[in-house]
Amino acid sequence: MTTSVLDPTNEQTPEHRERAQRISSLQGATIGLLDISKPRGDVFLDTIQSLLEKKGATVLRYIKPTFTKPAPVDLRHEISTTCDAVIEALAD
Amino acid sequence: MGNSQPKLADGFVVFVKRDCPTCELIIPVLEQLCESKILRTIFTQDDASFPELPITSDDTSLEVSFSHRIETVPTLLKIQDGIELDRTVGWSQDTWKAFLDIEDLGPENIPSYSPGCGSLSVDPDLQGMLQKKYGSGLVSREVTFASAEDEFEAMYDRGWSDGLPLIPPTIERVQAMLEGTKRKPDDIIALVPPDLVDLTVEKVAVNAVMAGCKPEYLPVVITALETACGDEFNMHGLLATTMPVGPVIFVNGPIRKSINMNSGMNLLGQGNRAYSTIGRAVQLTIRNVGGGRPGEVDRATHGSPAKYGLCFAEDEEGSPWQSYAQDQGFSSEQNTVTLFPGEGPRMIVDQLSRSPDELARSLAMGIIGNVHPKLVMGFDAILIIGPEHASRFAEAGWTKEQVNEEILNHSIRETDELIRGANGISEGLPEVFAGSTLPKLRPNGGLIILYGGGAAGLFSATIGGWLSGDKGSIYQTREITL
User: Fold this and answer.
1) Where in the sequence is the domain holding B73, given as residue range(s)?
2) Are strands B72-73 and B476-479 parallel, antiparallel or unpaired?
3) Can you give the pLDDT at residue B4?
4) Residue B474: which of B227, B191, B189 has the closest Cα?
5) Which B residues in the span 66-95 are in contact with A, Cβ-Cβ below 8 Å?
6) Alpha-carbon gap: B384 to the closest alpha carbon of chain A (Å)
7) N or C of chain A: less Cβ packing under 10 Å?
8) Which helix (H) or strand (E) holds B478?
9) Which residues in chain B are closer than 8 Å to A12, comparing Cβ atoms?
10) What residues in A contact B155, CB-CB < 8 Å?
11) Taking the domains of chain A in order of start, what are their residue ranges?
C-alpha cells in the first residue's frame, strides 16, 4: 500500500559555506577570545592570551552573558568585524 | 482554505441531491425557474440526471459544492460578476420568492417550508478526500512512501521518531487535528530552536498527529510550544545542556477534565493518553522542526525518560488549597499551561510524620537532595504533595503559602556543610561562603507546590529544576489559546 504523509520537518536544506581563510601567522593578528561564562573559562583563556601575546598577536577578550543561550547577534557581529580569528572557551 | 473556486455564471444557481426529500419536493419549482430562465444552473451532487432538466450540471465530484462551502441542499445562490452576493438555505416559498424577486413560485399544493438535508460536500467521511483533492490549504511537503516500504519503518528511517512508533501524519489526520484549534494552519507561533525556524500551527499539527494526540489536545501543545520557545524559558539552553532536563508541563483549568488528563493515582506514570502524547508532541516538534536531536545539539549526558515528554495536571478538585494557576492570578475558569525546566520526578517518602511542622522539615530534607545536597540556590523545584501528606497540613489549618514558607525555611543550609571539601567531598561552594547560611531554593518562587496523586501513600514527589533565572530558564504560566 502506498501512503502519503506530510513532512514533519522544517524542510530546509543546510546552506553550504566555505570555511573562512585560515590566518597564516599570529604576528600582528587580532585574536578574539570568547568566554561563554562557564566556571574557570577565564583561567583557561588567561593562559591562552599570554601564549598568543608571546607570539605577537593582539588579543581582545569577549564574554557571553550566559552559556545557556546563543551569543547575542551584536556580540557576534563585533567579533566578526574586529578580529582575524576567534577562540571560544567551551564548557567547564 | 486557499483553493481556487470554480467560477459560477451570473444569476441564480442551486445545489441539490436526489437523496433529499426537499429537493424532490421542489422539482416543480426548479422546472418553473428553468423554463422562465431565472435559474442558470442546478448543481446535482449524487445523480447527474436529477432533475432531468437542460440546466442540470453534474457535480457528483462535489468540487463546486465543496469549494463554495455548500452545507445544506437545497441552497440557492445569487451570483454577480462571478461573486456570490447572497444565499438562502433550505426551501421556504416566501424566502425564495423574495430572494428571486418573483411573485408566483411553485404549485399551490407544495408545502411552503422544508429545511432540506446536509450537503454531501460536508459529509465527514468525504472530508479528507475532498480536502486532498480540492485544496487543503496545507503547505507541508507531501512525502510518498514506496509501495514496498512499511510506513512505520519508513518514518523511523527518516529520523522523525523519538524511538517510539509514530502515527502516520496523513493529510486527513492533520486536517482532523487542525479542527482542534481556531488558529489558522499558517499562523506562526514561535521561532523554534536550535535551528530558529518559524513554527507554524500546521507543523505542530503534523507532529501532534505523529505523537498520538487527539485534536482537542492541540491548543495545549501549541501554547506549550509558544512558551517553551520564548526567550525567557530558553528551550535552546534546556536542549543543549548536558543535564537531564526538558520542559515539564502542567495544566490547570477546566480543559484538564475535558481532555481527560489524570491528576490522581499514577499521575506521573503511564496509561493516560493526554499525559503520554502532549509532552511528546512538544518534544517531537522541537526535534523535527527545530532540529534538536539527541547526540547533536541535545548534549544530555544521561537524559531522562521524562524527555520523551512530561505533561500532567493538578488535582484542583481534591486540593485543600486553590490551584497553582489561581495563585498566579488566573481564574478557575481559565485554562493554563505552566512550563518548568525540570528533570524526572522522584518520590519523597515520609510515613511517620504526624504534625505539619515535622512533615515540612521532612519534605525540605527530600528537596535538599535535588541535584546535589551541597549545591544551593541555582535550582528551583516542584513539589507535588500527595493527598495523605496534604491532609496533615490541611487538618492543621496550614495554608499553601505557609507550607511553602516553612519548607523553604527548613531547607536553609549551614554553609560550613556546603563548602568545597566539607564532608570529604570536593563538590560545593567556594570557601568565601563559609560561616553563614544559604537557602536551598530561591526565597521568592523557588518552590512550586502542586497537589496531586492517588489517595493512598504517605508520599510526595519532587521535580528538580535546572539553572533558574536569567542565566538559565525562567518558568512560565500562560493561558491556553483555543
Assistant:
1) 11-123
2) unpaired
3) 55
4) B227
5) none
6) 27
7) N
8) strand B476-479
9) 195, 197
10) 5
11) 30-89
* B288 and A CB contact within 8 Å: yes
pLDDT tens track for B314-365: 999 999 999 999 999 999 999 999 999 999 999 999 999 999 999 999 999 9
Nearest to A2 among B145, B174, B290 (CB): B145
Averaged pLDDT for residues B98-102: 94
**What CATH number is attached to the domain comprising B85?**
3.40.30.10
pLDDT: is B448 or B172 the higher one?
Answer: B448
Query: Are A3 and B174 an interchain contact pair (Cβ–Cβ within 8 Å)?
Result: no
Which of A6, A8, A69 is the closest to B237 by Cβ? Answer: A69
Residues B163 and B99 in one domain: no
**Predicted local distance difference test score (pLDDT) of residue B138:** 86
Q: How far is A25 from chain B (nearest CA, A)?
A: 33
Domain count, chain B: 2
**pTM attached to this predicted model:** 0.78
What cell numbers appear for B449 in the block? 507546590
pLDDT, tens digit, for every residue of B196-205? 999 999 999 9
Do B42 and B188 belong to one domain?
Answer: no
Tell me if B3 is assigned to some domain: no
Report in angstroms the alpha-carbon separations of A8 from A13, B41, B161, B192: 14, 43, 10, 13
Q: What is the pLDDT of residues B226-244, one digit of tens each?
A: 999 999 999 999 999 999 9
CA distances from B83 to B5, B7, B21, B90, B390 (A): 10, 8, 29, 21, 65
Scanning every residue of chain A, which has its alpha carbon at the shortest distance from the alpha carbon of B468? A68
ipTM, 2 dp: 0.83
